[in-house]
Amino acid sequence: MNHSVREYARHVDGLTVTTNTVEGYFSIIRRGIDGVYHHVGRQYLGQYLREFDFRYNVRKLNDRDRNIVALKKTRGKRLMLKEPKAAK
């Protein structure tokens, strides 16, 4: 798209192509990092992006349905807790 000449969408082979989808996705990432995490370490970037993928993909669901989808993703997984470190 060439926004400088007021082109915001193209029609290609019967499909409308816009940049709205990717702009919406990146706005979710920006808001999450600025508002919640404040910093993203390179070693954890993949985990953050997976979280934002999930948020984007379920953005139209209500809270109940979003929680059901999240819980289904835990099926067959075990939460392994480490022993707490002794207080000094």
Task: Describe what this molecule looks like in 3D.
By secondary structure, the protein is mainly α. It has a domain at 21-64. Helices cover 47% and strands 9% of the residues. It contains three helices and two strands. The chain has a two-stranded antiparallel sheet with strand order 1-2. A hairpin with a 2-residue loop joins β1 and β2. α1 packs across α2 (45-57). The relative contact order is 0.08.
Secondary structure layout plus pairing:
Layout: E1 9-12, E2 15-18, H1 20-37, H2 45-57, H3 63-72
Antiparallel strand pairs: 1-2
Helix pairs in contact: 1-2
In short:
With 88 residues, this protein is mainly α. It contains three helices and two strands. It has a domain at 21-64.
